[in-house]
Amino acid sequence: MSRSLFAKSKKQKPVSVACVCTVDSHSVTAAAVKVWSGQGAIHAPVVIFSAQKKVQGDKLSDVIHPLREILEMVRSHGGNPDLISCVIGEPWIATIPRTIKIEKAESFKLTQKTVDDALLRDMRASEADIRRDVADPDAIAIVDVSDPIWSVNGYRTDNVIGSVIPSLELDRSVSIMPGDVLDEIGLAISEVFHREDIIFHSAHHAFANYIANEKALSLRVGGVSSEWSVIDRGVISAVQPIPAGLVEIEEVLKHEFSIPKTLIESTMSFATDEGLALHEKDVYYRRIERAASGWLHAVRSSLEEIRKKADLLPRTLVLSSDAPWILALAPVIARELDMAVAVLSSDYIGNDVVFSHDARAKTNALGIAIEYSIKRMNS
After folding, report:
1. 348-to-23, 171, 279, 362 alpha-carbon distances in Å
2. How far apart are CA 260 and CA 227, in angstroms?
3. Of 8, 129, 140, 181, which residue is the least packed, with the fewest Cβ within 10 Å?
């Protein structure tokens, strides 16, 4: 199996079918997507078929079986794809900010070669830093690297190739994951489609691409863990993991409301029902707050940690999760942290993605993954 970050597929046709899948500890999704390849493609990608399965358990083996199932469903509807993209999320992905400085004794004319050489040196340095304390060089795999953002004299700027400048800073982020996890997920995909040229991406970078034109504080709530990140123009500048997620909250909600886990989503929907009286909503929110108190404590503590890593945090945070009931948690988080909370809806499906009537799964993870995968494919 190829682990190359820049693995190339077979020669792309003007119209191709791609398989895009997402893998994290809460759910797996997959889609057969009709795409028009190449720069300047004018057609939006069309999802021929999509499916989602919730992960029942917190081990990698609990992910592989449902992943195989939905990939078989995608193959039966879309055939063998021309391209395969897999976007990996928590808890297996970690993202590291990198700053690259280009400076000389005097002002100099910046060339593309100077930038390319600096980026290549940093990639080699990143690999050395990541693997320095690891006995097996294959234990950690680099799966995604963001495009850099440019700064001259501390000010963000566009491409300044050909300009005379005193110095240049390039900020980007690198996503890594355990090599054995990447291999096992890749093996499951390749056994379904009988090919190994799978392109892996990071859910962190896919989400950063979604809010590429803004500076944002993101709180992503996953299955067994959550994560703060500060995103600036598509680059992750600071990250702070939170060792608790949906699994922990759902377990307490189950006891708080005396319901099975299968009824959590419908029960939580009452809290956001516009027809519910304010005092009744308040009762729901108080119970949700009690159920999430342990998770909220971890969120608050980790927020203090990320404050130390970032110069200035945005006052609005973007809350996202594939659990539809996360909307009910937003007022609780806003009150706990004294911050405005914007919720990325669980059924967000991408600005430029068209879903056919056979597309069963329409989740934010899948919509964002498709947008990011197609952008990377055409870059």
Report:
1. 17, 29, 30, 7
2. 27
3. 8
Write out the E strands in the chain.
Answer: 15-23, 27-36, 46-54, 83-88, 94-109, 140-145, 149-152, 155-157, 164-178, 198-202, 215-221, 226-232, 235-242, 316-320, 340-344, 354-355
- Note whether 18 and 377 are within 8 A (CB): yes
In the predicted model, is pLDDT for residue 287 greater than 90? Answer: no
Query: Could you tell me the pTM of the whole model?
Result: 0.82
The residue extents of the domains of the chain are 215-344
User: Does CATH number 3.30.540.10 belong to domain 215-344?
Assistant: no
Residue 43: CB atoms within 10 A of its CB come to 11
Chain centroid to CA 9: how far?
22
Q: What is the pLDDT of residues 198-243, one digit of tens each?
A: 999 999 998 888 876 678 899 988 888 889 999 887 788 888 989 8
Report the percentage of the chain scoring pLDDT > 70. 87
| Residues in Cβ contact with 110 at an 8 Å cutoff, skipping those fewer than 6 apart | 102, 160, 161, 162, 163, 164, 165, 168
Contact 192, 72 (CB under 8 A): yes
Rounded distance between C-alpha atoms, residue 20 and residue 18, angstroms: 6
Alpha helices (runs of H) in 60-178, residue ranges in sequence order: 60-78, 112-131
Which DSSP string corresponds to 306-331? Answer: HHHHSSS--SEEEEE-S-GGGGGGHH
Residues with Cβ within 8 Å of 102's Cβ and at least 6 positions away in sequence, in order, are 110, 114, 115, 118, 167, 168, 169, 170
| Burial class, 354, CB count within 10 angstroms (exposed 0-12 / middle 13-18 / buried 19+) | middle
Contact call for residues 91 and 63 (beta carbons, < 8 A): no
